[in-house]
Amino acid sequence: MNRIISLFALAAALLAGPALAQDATEAVAELVASPDPAAHTVWILNTLLFLIGGFLVMWMAAGFAMLEAGLVRSKNVAMQCTKNVALFSIAAVGYYLVGYNLMYPLGNWSIGTDETGGYLGAFGIAVLEAVGIGADGADDIEYASTGSDFFFQLMFCATTASIVSGTLAERIKLWPFLIFTVVLVTLIYPIQASWKWGGGFLDSQFGFLDFAGSTVVHSVGGWAALAGAIILGPRLGKYAADGSVKPMPGSNLPLATLGTFILWLGWFGFNGGSQLAMGSIGDAADVSRIFANTNTAAAGGALGALILTQVVYGKIDLTMVLNGALAGLVSITAEPLTPSLGMATLIGAVGGAIVVFAVPFLDKLKIDDVVGAIPVHLFCGIWGTLAVVLTNSDATLYGQLVSIVVVAVFVLVASGLVWLILNVAMGLRVTKDAEMEGLDSAELGMEAYPEFGKGSQFA
Predict the structure, then answer these.
(1) What domains lie within the chain, and their CATH numbers?
(2) 209, burial (CB in 10 Å: exposed 0-12, middle 13-18, buried 19+)
């Protein structure tokens, strides 16, 4: 009993402040390195939260793949699956080689000395703790395992890349997209993320609050997708000369629905894991509250889109409802802890409404977003970041706005330059014939649904 009381007392004292990975203190380091079993328990619980949250966020990769596969036409499904597997793999390697150390330039989150990392450590490449390391030497400068933190943060990086994939579907070449992904996960994402989560100037000078990444993750993917969509142009036949918009329905709405529910599930790791601590009663209570707020925001977004499409269009649009749920999730991501359940529901509902009005707005601008990622991740990422001031007294409207603009300018300019260079160097867009035929056949030489055959009404 005394040990349990000691554990809670230590955890409460050590983790009362914001549990940010980059803010490990000397006091925490001493406790983790000590033989005190209470300190070891805190370290283990924190590490476990990173790992559980990380594999839930990894499962979101499946959700993105299923959502995109369901919302594109059948002749492009295999290409979307290929892109999602490839971009996740690129993110895993690229974030390891470059992005992780760029994201935490002021911290000590990689072990890279000659003794532990050999030539890799000498070049600053992240090397995690050795297999079989004893408890007395395990990451003695951290309050959780370096490996678990790396794993968790990697999943956020991969999520950013997934956002871009769906917007540019059905007309972009595979290799230019993958090369852009390399730049996004190794440079663009980690550099701007370091400004907040790496102890950079947005955090220190502007008091920017973004709990799990409405801006740092979601709007970054949205800005990169927007730059690519403008440069790439719309799909053939999407916009007529008279200004009308041709619907291009997806191939499999049940698959898109499954993808949405997978993303909904993964978001509990996305937001809940971002508490970054599980070693006290307070942290456990906060994680559970984050789960509840995350869930109700998604429900609010889905219901908001459902009701609005009925009112505006006379019929409920399932794709809007699915994106409404995702919009609610993005909207609550910047601050899932401080709202009440009612406020979280309203924040999500506003996100669902934003999607309903943003999709036709983009069509008026002739910006072709195949899956609606820009309204969901960019527009609602902005809304969610601003909504922090409604429930968190530590946030300022000025700090939130400045940070949104800084990230927007950086990502738009950097992404735009990369897209333009790729367009000049190798061309972004497939040929008209390839686009009409479908990227599955033209780019990959295979079909996702071969039993339907070319020219099928399902294509």
Answers:
(1) 2-444 (1.10.3430.10)
(2) buried
Task: Return d(Cα 398, Cα 191) in angstroms, integer.
Answer: 22
DSSP string, 279-325: SSHHHHHHHHHHHHHHHHHHHHHHHHHHHHHHHHHSS--HHHHHHHH
Phi-psi region of 438 (alpha: psi -120 to 50; beta: other; left: phi over 0): left
**Secondary structure of 109-178 in HEC code, one letter for each residue:** CCECCHHHHHHHHHCCCCECCCCCCCCCCCCCCCCCCHHHHHHHHHHHHHHHHHHHHHHCCCCECHHHHH
* DSSP letter assigned to residue 234: P
Q: Are 299 and 361 in contact (CB under 8 A)?
A: no
Under 8 Å between Cβ of 275 and 53: no
The two structure tokens encoding residue 16: 């009362």
pLDDT in tens, 379-417: 999 999 999 999 999 999 999 999 999 999 999 999 999
Note the pTM of the prediction, 2 decimals: 0.86
Question: 217-240 pLDDT, tens per residue?
Answer: 999 999 999 999 999 999 999 999
